[in-house]
């Protein structure tokens, strides 16, 4: 009996019966089933091949208890074991979703496009038209996104940040203004580039002539982590939403090291009129405090669904001295102090109270109120609106 040809024959048969495809698994081709399918009118169809499943739903960030069908979209199965659900015309945006299969949440195996948000991984899709087109990669000149390590006094080592440089940066000697863009609690230096679609937004707005070309610096605001999960000396650590550094004031107190590094290593125009800072939620609080602490450093300030003071603890200088620093910031003046908030944001009252404080001291600001709540849908929109107002003076 010849063993080698028999083994080869068995392996060949197994390959033919294996539905998995990839560079290293060339086997039986799957039926042409795709998911999701986004129609021209933004109706979206979800598909899942799961013949043995008993109950399947779509879990999406556009669904809530107030949605017509509730917070889950039910899928139905045909005779071939294909589950399908159709979501009627959706808005023009980027959406996240998973499947719930017999009580177990899974990602869509037919959709390779995924985004991590804190400790969860979601599939995503982008619909068509209007604002959604800003979140897509189009045939326009492209900027460059790099991950940069810089020396930090916080952990006596190095920390990582993401930096976007506009199209043509590498081939020129031109200097640019800079936007420091801060993430929310649970985020890191990858949040704005992935969930916020910063490179796509910047490329598309620059190509359309709607914003001044700028450098965007996106640091990691959780000082107890030197980099995003899987990229630091901590290895594959459990990802936390609220890390021990929240409310310590370390990010705010040491922000000049980020500015100094960026201005030393990149062609950034110097001076207050060429610097902007903005952030969402926790990053909004950081922005509020940093811009007041360094009261003559930023001419443009953006608060996106901003939190206020991140701790009630005393003896943290950047918090305890905030009121007097804010007065100095008001005295020095800003070209733009911009506040964006959703009508159903859980921080709505916090924002209302803070605006009252600004009114009481006579500090000028611009206020934009949107529909929706504490969502990336709003924060991407705020970035588009805020960036269009920068460096026009």
Automatic annotation (TrEMBL):
<dbReference type="InterPro" id="IPR050583">
    <property type="entry name" value="Mycobacterial_A85_antigen"/>
</dbReference>
<feature type="signal peptide">
    <location>
        <begin position="1"/>
        <end position="22"/>
    </location>
</feature>
<keyword id="KW-0732">Signal</keyword>
<dbReference type="Pfam" id="PF00756">
    <property type="entry name" value="Esterase"/>
</dbReference>
<dbReference type="InterPro" id="IPR014756">
    <property type="entry name" value="Ig_E-set"/>
</dbReference>
<protein>
    <submittedName>
        <fullName>Esterase</fullName>
    </submittedName>
</protein>
<dbReference type="InterPro" id="IPR000801">
    <property type="entry name" value="Esterase-like"/>
</dbReference>
<dbReference type="InterPro" id="IPR029058">
    <property type="entry name" value="AB_hydrolase_fold"/>
</dbReference>
<dbReference type="InterPro" id="IPR013783">
    <property type="entry name" value="Ig-like_fold"/>
</dbReference>
């Amino acid at each position: 009996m010849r063993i080698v040809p028999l083994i080869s024959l068995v392996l060949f048969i197994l390959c033919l019966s294996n539905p998995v495809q990839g560079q290293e698994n060339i086997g039986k081709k799957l039926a042409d089933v795709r998911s999701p399918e986004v129609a021209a009118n933004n109706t979206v169809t979800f598909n899942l091949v799961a013949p043995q499943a008993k109950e399947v739903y779509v879990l999406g960030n556009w669904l809530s208890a107030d949605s017509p069908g509730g917070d889950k979209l039910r899928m139905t199965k045909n005779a071939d074991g294909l589950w399908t659900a159709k979501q009627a015309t959706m808005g023009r945006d980027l959406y996240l979703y998973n499947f719930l299969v017999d009580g177990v949440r899974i990602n869509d195996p037919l959709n390779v496009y995924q985004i991590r948000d804190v400790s969860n991984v979601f599939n995503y899709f982008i619909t068509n038209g209007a604002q959604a087109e800003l979140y897509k990669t189009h045939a326009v000149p492209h900027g460059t996104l790099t991950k940069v390590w810089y020396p930090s006094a916080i952990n006596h080592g190095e920390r990582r940040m993401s930096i976007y440089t506009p199209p043509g940066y590498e081939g020129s000697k031109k200097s640019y203004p800079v936007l420091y863009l801060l993430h929310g609690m649970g985020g890191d230096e990858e949040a704005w580039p992935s969930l916020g679609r910063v490179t796509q937004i910047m490329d598309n707005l620059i190509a359309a002539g709607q914003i001044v070309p700028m450098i965007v610096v996106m640091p990691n605001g959780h000082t107890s982590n030197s980099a995003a999960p899987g990229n630091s000396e901590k290895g594959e650590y459990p990802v936390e939403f609220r890390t021990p550094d929240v409310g310590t004031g370390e990010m705010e107190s040491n922000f000049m090291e980020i500015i100094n590094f960026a201005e030393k290593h990149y062609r950034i125009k110097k001076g207050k009129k060429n610097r902007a800072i903005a952030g969402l939620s926790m990053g909004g609080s950081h922005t509020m405090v940093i811009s007041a602490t360094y009261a003559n450093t930023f001419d443009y300030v953006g608060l996106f669904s901003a939190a206020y003071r991140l701790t009630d603890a005393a003896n943290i200088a950047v918090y305890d001295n905030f009121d007097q620093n804010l007065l100095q910031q008001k005295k020095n003046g800003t070209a733009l102090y911009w506040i964006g908030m959703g009508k159903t944001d859980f921080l709505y009252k916090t924002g209302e109270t803070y605006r009252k404080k600004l009114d009481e001291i006579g500090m000028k600001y611009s206020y934009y109120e949107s529909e929706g709540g504490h969502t990336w849908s709003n924060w991407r929109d705020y970035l588009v609106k805020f960036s269009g107002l920068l460096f026009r003076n």
